[in-house]
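Researcher: Let's do a round of design. I'm pasting the structure tokens now; please hold your answer until I've finished.
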């Protein structure tokens, strides 16, 4: 974001949903008979996998595909692997699905227990990456990232969710304890807690700073916090972590507190579910539960062409079956009736200028999308600041012509990475 300055939003002012004064407890979703876990790794027919169909797994067992894999999931139940298959995700990303048939066995394993009295970052990364809230241990343990500031996000990034705010309000004691544990684990010199403007929180934790975030989208996005609160401009092609700043959700911090206090891993994920009629409920559901079980609990019927969105309306992604599981990072689920799904067009830009006026990083979106439509990805980067986009999605929201600008931008970034990777490979081989 080094080429162009930030500017204020012109319209609309989209307000975050603030948590109630007394939010109450979430509704509990019973465990399903079949759990689905997603491993960020792919099966390789040339290698012998550690996991096979019909293998038994125990509750609490760490599951990796190969001996040298750094990616893993923790099984929330005991049972038998019914199927294991790698499937493509967004932009060629591949994940492996493990379907586990739950049984009534009480067999479990707790490898973390013997490490719970030691506050070591590497050990936490080995066992706690799958905690609810998905703690960012990959960034925290990366030797290339010199993390000096940790920002605890107490404001939900997208609309239609109040998961992070809930932990500020209803789990404040565990949050405080988790912050202290985070300080011990990371030894980061600066830890910051973000809260909604007007929200009061008693921290009484030495060294903790509190930032008040204006309650309008997209102020809670990490890039906006970097600019508005930390006064740091992110150069194109760089991330917050590249500049020494790591973001972690309030739920992840609470999960850390519970893991070290109870000396075991928790599996209950808080999810905000918005039904077709706009009614929103907080649900407590085990990680790995297919969304079908949540819909059954809430008596939500999914019809052909209805849309299921994992995440918020701006930064979320659509899934196309009711068996997609709840993951450690799933904060919200939205169900849209087929008749309410916004129309998307392949019409040409009409130069109304709405996307330019609303862009929080002042990108010439109308010119950028023209390059992306004709696959001129390198020109989009060099001439029209493709990599400066923070992917807030506001351009698509206001587009008069209903062009899927946000999707063009995401695809463009992906294609640009492929081009740069191919160029780097060619340089090595020369």
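Researcher: That's everything. Go ahead.
Model: Designed sequence:
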């Amino acid at each position: 974001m080094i080429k162009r300055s930030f500017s204020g939003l012109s319209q609309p002012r989209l307000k975050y949903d603030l948590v109630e004064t007394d939010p109450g407890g979430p509704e509990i979703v019973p465990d399903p008979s079949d759990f689905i876990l997603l491993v960020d790794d792919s099966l390789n027919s040339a290698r012998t996998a550690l996991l096979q169909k019909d293998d038994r797994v125990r509750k609490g067992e760490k599951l990796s595909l190969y001996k040298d894999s750094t990616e893993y999931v923790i099984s929330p139940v005991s049972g038998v692997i019914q199927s294991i298959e790698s499937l493509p995700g967004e932009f060629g990303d591949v994940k492996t699905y493990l379907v586990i048939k739950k049984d009534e066995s009480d067999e479990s394993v707790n490898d973390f227990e013997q490490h719970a009295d030691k506050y070591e970052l590497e050990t936490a990364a080995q066992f706690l990456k799958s905690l609810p809230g998905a703690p960012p241990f990959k960034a925290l343990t990366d030797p290339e990232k010199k993390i000096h500031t940790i920002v605890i996000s107490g404001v939900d990034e997208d609309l239609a969710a109040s998961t992070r705010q809930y932990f500020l309000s209803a789990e404040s004691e565990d949050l405080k304890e988790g912050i202290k544990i985070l300080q011990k684990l990371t030894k980061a010199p600066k830890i910051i807690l973000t809260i909604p403007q007007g929200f009061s929180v008693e921290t009484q934790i030495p060294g903790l700073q509190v930032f008040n975030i204006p309650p309008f989208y997209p102020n809670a996005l990490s890039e906006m916090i970097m600019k508005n609160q930390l006064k740091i401009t992110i150069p194109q092609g760089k991330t917050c972590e590249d500049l020494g700043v790591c973001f972690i959700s309030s739920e992840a911090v609470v999960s850390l507190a519970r893991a070290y206090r109870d000396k075991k891993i928790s599996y209950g994920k808080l999810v905000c579910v918005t039904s077709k009629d706009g009614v929103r409920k907080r649900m407590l559901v085990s990680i790995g539960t297919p969304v079908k079980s949540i819909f059954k609990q809430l008596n939500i019927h999914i019809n052909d062409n209805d849309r299921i969105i994992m995440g918020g309306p701006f930064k979320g992604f659509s899934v196309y079956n009711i068996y997609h599981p709840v993951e450690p990072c799933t904060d919200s689920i939205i169900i849209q009736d087929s008749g309410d799904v916004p129309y998307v067009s392949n019409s040409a830009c009409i130069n109304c200028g709405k996307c330019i006026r609303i862009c929080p990083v002042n990108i010439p979106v109308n010119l950028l999308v023209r390059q992306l439509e004709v696959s001129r990805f390198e020109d989009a980067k060099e001439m029209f600041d493709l990599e400066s986009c923070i992917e807030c999605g506001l351009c698509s929201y206001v587009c008069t012509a209903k062009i899927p600008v946000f999707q063009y931008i995401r695809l463009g970034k992906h294609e640009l990475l492929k081009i740069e990777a191919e160029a780097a490979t060619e340089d090595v081989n020369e």
